[in-house]
Design goal:
The chain is an alpha/beta fold. It has one domain: Phosphoglycerate mutase-like (Rossmann fold), CATH 3.40.50. It contains 7 helices and 6 strands; from the N terminus they run E-H-E-H-E-H-H-H-E-H-E-E-H. A 6-stranded mixed beta sheet has the order 3-2-4-1-5-6. Strand 5 and strand 6 form a beta hairpin. The radius of gyration is 17 Å and the shape is globular.
Length: about 220
């Protein structure tokens, strides 16, 4: 079986603008995100990784680089098929303004019917992501690979392999710098873990201990 680690990128400051980032260029990890990515990279030091694939955006590439520095024999392969949702005309717009649109509520309640003007439909997003996961699984039999992607992409992939309808994918939580694990081979797929954040929990505990010590 191919073991696939689906990793969400670490945090960035763009969320503080309350706008929909999408493929907006120049969105980098902030200080907290860099610390999260470093903890993620250390967590995966003993993992027998063979390939690292990443969405081409800065925040995903920087997260992938934090993993790759502990596996210098591996190159990072940019892969737009696991890139962010293409929001079309919605990209960069205020979330508060978007929430007044009828389509926003369709996205939240019935994503299988949702589409973004001059962008993708949610069904298309899930299909391209799942198709690419299947392709990479076939390309790397009996190997462990990492895919660094985005929250909704990972949620959709996990929903598919759990046998969930797309309309329910928002029930899944995928946190920044988390790890979710799939095992794909001949026959049924297996979900090994979802939203594993043990390394982030440890990071936060270390910060609290340091603050208490310094205080």
């Amino acid at each position: 079986m191919t073991q696939i680690l689906l990793v969400r990128h670490a945090v960035n400051d763009y969320v503080k603008t309350h706008r929909l980032a999408g493929w907006t260029p120049g969105v980098h990890l902030n200080e907290e995100g860099l610390a999260q990515a470093e903890a993620l990279g250390k967590r995966l030091i003993p993992a027998p990784l063979r390939y690292i694939y990443a969405s081409p955006l800065e925040r995903t590439m920087e997260t992938a680089q934090a993993i790759q520095q502990h596996h210098p024999q591996i190159s990072i392969v940019q892969n737009s098929e696991i890139g962010e949702v293409r929001y079309g005309d919605w990209e960069g717009q205020s979330i508060a303004a978007l929430q007044t649109r009828k389509m926003w509520h369709v996205v939240q309640e019935y994503p299988s019917r949702a589409y973004f003007p001059n962008g993708e439909t949610m069904r298309q997003v899930q299909q391209r992501a799942v198709n690419e996961v299947e392709r990479l699984a076939a390309l790397h039999p009996r190997e462990m690979i990492v895919l660094v992607s985005h929250a909704d992409l990972i949620k959709m992939v996990m929903a598919h392999f759990l046998g969930m309808h797309l309309d329910n994918f928002q029930r899944i939580v995928i946190s920044p710098a988390s790890i979710s694990t799939l095992m794909l081979g001949y026959g049924r797929p297996y979900v090994g873990s979802m939203n594993d954040m043990a390394h982030i929990t440890q990071l936060e505990q270390e910060r609290k201990a340091a603050a208490a010590h310094n205080g």
